[in-house]
Specification:
By secondary structure, the protein is an alpha+beta fold. It has one domain: Aminopeptidase. Helices cover about 30% and strands about 30% of the residues. It contains five helices and seven strands; from the N terminus they run βαααβββαβαββ. The protein has a seven-stranded mixed sheet with strand order 1-2-3-4-5-7-6, with helices on both faces.
């Protein structure tokens, strides 16, 4: 099966809602603006970000694999957020695929020269993935619980060395 990064459709939000088991998981994934429990049909509105885009990674048969967003935080910098992979698809490289495509889409849409994201320090799997993708901690903008990470891009859109 091939994968495609596309805009979400209403049924995607039903799937995403099923991936969020409790209030703690909801807060870690979406922040405090999204209450738990939430109504899946309201998720698109709850997740809306000004100047941003929501994206779904799906198989060509329509099976939803993951979700993420990007939005501009300041001139030249785009932020990735609310990245999640279906529990049934974890450990299969789909998170990497989602992040690589989301970075490419965000840079293409905004022309940014740097990409940021936040990750909980105890989320070792995600932290390892982001390091392998070229993101580096920004210690001055991090705290004991959450790391801000940044990837500076070269002129080709790849991570600078």
């Amino acid at each position: 099966m091939s994968l495609v990064l596309r805009s979400p459709v209403p049924s995607d939000y039903e799937s995403i809602a099923s991936w969020i088991p409790d209030a703690a998981a909801c807060a870690r994934w979406a922040g405090l603006r999204v209450p738990f429990p939430f109504v899946a049909t309201e998720l698109a509105t709850l997740l809306a970000v000004t100047g941003g885009e929501s994206c779904c990674l799906a198989e060509d048969d329509g099976l939803l694999v993951g979700f993420g967003q990007h939005w501009v935080v300041r001139d030249g910098v785009v932020h990735l957020g609310r990245i999640i992979v279906s529990p049934a698809q974890r450990g299969r490289g789909k998170g990497r695929e989602l992040c690589e495509r989301l970075v490419a889409r965000a840079v293409q849409a905004t022309g940014a020269g740097a990409v940021t994201l936040r990750v909980y320090r105890d989320n070792e799997i995600a932290l390892g993935l982001y390091l392998r993708l070229g993101f580096r901690p920004v210690v001055t903008e991090s705290d004991e619980e959450v790391l801000l990470m940044m990837k500076v891009l070269d002129d080709s859109g790849n991570g600078a060395s």
